[in-house]
Amino acid sequence: MDDIEGLRERKKRETRLALSRAAIRLCVQRGWDNVSVADIAAAANVSERTFRNYFVSKAEAIAASQLERAFQTADDLRARPAGEPLWDGLIAAVTMQYDAAVADDPTGWADGVRQVLSEPAVQGEVLKINAAALEELALAIAERAGLDAEADLAPRLLAAVVAGATGAVVGHWLFNDLRSEERRVGKECRSR
Predict the structure, then answer these.
(1) CA 173, 178, 184, 187 torsion: positive or negative?
(2) How many CA atoms lie within 13 A of 96 on its CB side?
(3) Which of 40, 125, 145, 186 has the smallest count of CB within 10 Å of its CB?
(4) What ranges in the chain are assigned the alpha helix state H?
(5) How far apart are CA 185 and CA 179, in angstroms?
(6) What is the end-to-end Cα distance of the chain in Å, rounded?
């Protein structure tokens, strides 16, 4: 019975991820306003009803990839060698999630992702997802360190540090070229 339930849960997770990736890809390629739920469902090879079984909006579908990345990071941390120092395991688990994304970064992808992330609906969903992502990572850290996730502050604090560092790195990747251009323009304006 556990095998069937495990398979069912894995299939649900795969469908959620396929829908999320389709939503991101289409919104990056076409723009937020030019993508419908029907488009996303078709791209993921499911019905619109199936999409609605998983998500209430395309913004929620987009944010789901972040939660999946957090779940995968937690799973990867749990699978790391037992004797490995916690920080080393965390670094390896987090970077594994981004190595593939960087290798598969088509030209213009960052511009499209910036546009999608600028949508208020997406920003709201990302904030909601962050809480669940932090909780999952804190649980994995607690398991790894042999701590009580409810009683000990350390796992939540460490998860928050990892999430903050990851957010800063992703923000740097997405927005640093824009900030550099803003600083350059600002300097030119001040020098006149």
Answers:
(1) negative
(2) 17
(3) 186
(4) 2-30, 37-43, 48-54, 58-79, 86-103, 109-117, 120-145, 154-191
(5) 10
(6) 74
Cα distance between residue 97 and residue 160, in whole Å = 17
Instruction: Enter the DSSP assignment of 119.
Output: S
Q: What is the DSSP letter of 47?
A: -
Residues whose CB is less than 8 angstroms from the CB of residue 162 and which lie 6 or more positions away in sequence, other chains included: 90, 94, 137
Q: What is the pLDDT of residue 19?
A: 96
Asked if 43 and 26 count as a contact pair (C-beta separation under 8 A), the reply is yes
Read off the pTM.
0.77
Q: For residue 162, give both structure tokens.
A: 């990892």
Amino acid in the structure at residue 161 = V
Which amino acid, 146?
G
Element (H, E) at 69: helix 58-79
Contacting residues for 149 by C-beta, under 8 A, at least 6 apart = 138, 139, 141, 142, 143, 155, 156
Residues 37/51, Cβ–Cβ less than 8 Å: yes
Question: For the segment 8-65, what is each residue's pLDDT rounded down to a tens digit?
Answer: 888 998 999 999 999 999 999 999 999 999 999 999 999 999 999 999 999 999 999 8
